[in-house]
Amino acid sequence: MINLADYKNERQYKTVFFETFGCQMNKLDAELSLGLLQEDGYSIVDKVEEADVILYNTCSVRQHAEDKVYSHLGALRTLKKKHPDVIVGVLGCMAQKDAQSIFKRMPHVDLVCGTRMFSRLPELLLKIRNHGNHVLAVDEDEIVDVKRIAAYRPNVYQAFVTVMRGCDNYCSYCIVPYVRGREVSRTIADVKQEVMELVSNGCREITLLGQNINSYGKSLPGNITLGDLLIELNGVEKLERLRFVTSHPKDMSRDLIRTMSQLDKVCEYLHMPAQSGSDRILKKMHRGYTAGYYRELIQYARDLMPTIKVASDFIVGFPGETEEDFQETVCLMEDLRFQNCFIFKYSTRTGTKAAELTDDVPDEIKKKRNATLLDLQKKISLEENKKLIGRKLQALVEGASKSDPNKLSGRTRQNNIIVFKGQPALVGTLVDITINEATDLTLFGTM
Ligand code: SAM
Ligand code: SF4
Questions:
Q1: Which terminus of the chain has fewer CB atoms gathered within 10 Å of its CB, N or C?
Q2: How far is ligand 2, taken at its centre, from the CA of residue 246, in Å?
Q3: pLDDT tens digits for 198-255?
Q4: 62 alpha carbon – ligand 1 mean position (Å)
Q5: Does pTM top 0.90 for this prediction?
């Protein structure tokens, strides 16, 4: 039974401002958390000034992402002085990594909630309201899954589904295994159940998420693979499209590429980060493959699925990266002609293996290499998109275009965005669009 004081408190704290930094997995955690909070009676606001609870779902992959959150938190000091009852919380990777020290650096923070504790958010917030003390919840062995039923979903037709959490790879530069823990896969039955529920609520396209999705199943009994999961989900009625991210070249098998090519719902799209084109650097990164092997994998996928598009990630300025190493990355990018690439300047993460190496590439050089790859990729994306002019492509209509609200925006199987004229009633359906214009980021067409 709730007492009167609790009830009064509860009535007072019912708006939440929630900002997410980082990867798709964080965005999905945000959806799930907001779903839980909505179910608990919270309404979502988009200004910190209107919020009773301010939550930041954080990323630790690069220093820059952490600095941004600390600067946001710092800016809340005045607000918190004026309104001491407002609850400020740090969630996710930074919370897991910095834990107690966040309270030391930012004493006005009330809640630090790690990557495996999201499902307890309503309860943790209630605890703060009732007792007013700092609450630290970063115990790694706590509940992992938040049930989807409660999810707050801004896009009904497209959904992300986590199929595994954590990562066992320990790439030498990466903090993820330390903040997200060991790999744990959900069972096929569990994932299928969630997918079927989403589809029965109108969802048409599912993207399966895992930091290292090609090793899906390793923690399950019975030699289960990602291929098995794809085969099972391909049979879900009324589901139109399936994608999966992020692929690791070391764990990407030819078997899986063959399975992809045989399943009609699996889209012709791969996000498979190369990180570098230099074997010397790949070795220092503990990536477990060579640039040659990476090229072969992509060639194999293109042989079986000629329309497939590949996206990649690269890190520039890894310790010891010479101009020659960098030119090998440029060469890989020129040869493989990715659909798009995410390019990052190397950032030392304390506790990782690479942090033991000297961060010896000057920031000026990192910036220059970053700009070189961005410019090259922009040029390639534009050239590749222009090749699609005159072609008819299938788009899943997602809603009004952000750049022109009078037009619709859809996504192709290859993950290109297409903007075109059409009735709002088309949202959520598949339409064929003839492409007549292209930029490096967007295709434009007519029905
Ligand atoms: N699990 C995915 C994989 O292995 O490809 C990606 C995980 S990570 C969140 C996303 C990207 O951040 C990586 O692909 C890498 O390019 C980049 N990244 C990770 N650690 C980094 C670091 N210390 N400095 C710069 N970029 C980093
Ligand atoms: Fe980080 Fe490597 Fe795991 Fe990706 S595979 S999350 S880069 S350790």
A1: N
A2: 9
A3: 999 999 999 999 999 999 999 899 999 999 999 999 999 999 999 999 999 999 999 9
A4: 8
A5: yes
